[in-house]
Amino acid sequence: MVYFNRGMTKAYKYELLDLKPDPGFTDLERHFGLVRTNGTPKPSFYALKNLLHLLADTGPTAPTSSLAFQLTGATNNAHHTLLQKRDGAFWLAVFQEAVSYDAKTRSDLEVPLQPVTLKLPWASSEIRLFRPNRSSEPIEHIAVANEVMLQIPDEVLLVEIKALKQAH
Q: Is the dihedral of CA 97, 44, 52, 131 positive or negative?
């Protein structure tokens, strides 16, 4: 998402498969793959698969619009990318940039969620929240709202924002 925000429209994952078995994790160069040497997918494989599934939008190019949203609260390390699908729904990817792994102790670090309020210029008919690192299923549904409290993790949180249908 950071690369996309900087104008890079394509990015490539370095390796599909780990190079050689290294059960002791003594050589980090052998562990860049999305899949282990025995063919089992790593969590990063599922995270990327879910992200691509949720953001897929095949077909002809469609007109887009803008969304003047605001993020308030603990936004000091928060990053965001706004996308729009052909059906008009906006997809806001938000995450915090934080150190979450200690290479010396080879252990995960607990990164507290950042409370952030998303303010929309109009009421959305539905807002759905997704954590693609965990699943492609929504973790929360919010009906008609123009403001929602988010808990920003140190991984991508996708916010699907659907517009209210206009009566004709």
A: negative
Q: Which two tokens stand for residue 4?
A: 């996309």
Q: What is the dihedral of CA 69, 74, 78, 81, to 10 degrees?
A: -10
Q: Decide: 62 and 83 in contact? Cβ < 8 Å.
A: no
Q: At residue 151, what is the residue type?
A: Q
Distances from the Cα of 64 to the Cα of 82, 86, 114, angstroms: 12, 7, 30
| Degrees, nearest 5: CA angle 20-18-137 | 150
| Domain residue ranges in the chain | 2-41, 60-163
- pTM value? 0.89
What is the 8-class DSSP label of residue 41?
B
CA distance 133 to 113: 15
pLDDT in tens, 3-21: 889 999 888 888 999 988 9
Q: In this structure, which topology does domain 60-163 adopt according to CATH?
A: Immunoglobulin-like (2.60.40)
**With contact defined as beta carbons under 8 Å apart, do 62 and 89 qualify?**
no
Burial class (CB in 10 A: 0-12, 13-18, 19+), 23: exposed
**Tokens 């609260």 belong to which residue?**
73
